[in-house]
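Quick check before the chapter quiz. The format below is the same one you will see on the exam, so make sure you can read both the input and the output lines.
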Amino acid sequence: MIIGCLQHTTGQLRNRKSGPSGTKSSERGETVTFADIAGVDEAKEELEEIVEFLRNPDRYTRLGARPPRGVLLVGLPGTGKTLLAKAVAGEADVPFISCSASEFVELFVGMGASRVRDLFARAKREAPSIIFIDEIDAVAKSRDGKFRMVSNDEREQTLNQLLTEMDGFDSNSAVIVLGATNRADVLDPALRRPGRFDRVVMVEAPDRVGREAILKVHVSKKELPLAKDVGLGDIASMTTGFTGADLANLVNEAALLAGRQSKAVVEKIDFIHAVERSIAGIEKKTAKLQGIEKAVVARHEAGHAVVGTAVAKLLPGQPRVEGNARALFKDLK
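Here is the expected output.
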């Protein structure tokens, strides 16, 4: 047991040597801009104000305006929160300093707070700059109620240091903190008060028009040769509820399926099979239903088809009704 503890401690110390604050280097190599992002137009519009401040801070400070010190990006996993944060830095052409909040949680009490201090000190040296903290709920859970961090002094000290650093910004400080979470409900209220994370930007799953735009971006990036029967609008109608990450994976999966069959282009059937694999997994070819089992499943799936047809006018844009029976309805969004 003693040897195991020593090995774990050595590993923690070795990890800390990789960087003063556990952060990734400023990412200037691969520039991401708003043109690379689709399907989240409302979120991009809100973040453009941050870009404008970083480009022309004097335009605002001479009027006595104080820019938001922190912006919270809230949305489901895969909706593009990290990509949006990178795009803000890319559009403003400033250093992008990113880290995951889980990196602040250390074996020894006080180390997480030290990493937070190093992170903000570095951002101030490189100002104007952007700090991006992913999964910020890992260290910023509410200290009251059911989400209280029981007997975890390290997490609480780290959160307190984060709050102190954000309060320590000068009114004209050109450092913007972007935080990402899919659990805004568990965050400590002190983090979201004015002067800290002033803005909350919702990053939602795209509608049909957004999904089609995202598919176009990924098809264009991959220079994917498409067959004439492929309509990205049709594919978008089949993917209600898919996030940007899901759609990126879908395009890649369709290309893989076409490649396995040595096709010169990606056909519509490849996208359909990729959608089915994303929803239901790999087809179980050896699982054969017998007698009454087949009848029961048939009736069950027929029920999905009947209900899907009945509610088509009430719930436009729903390509499937939680089963293997699917229908395509025209999306009104």
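If your answer matched, good. Residues 1-21, 316-322, 327-333 have pLDDT under 50 and may be disordered.
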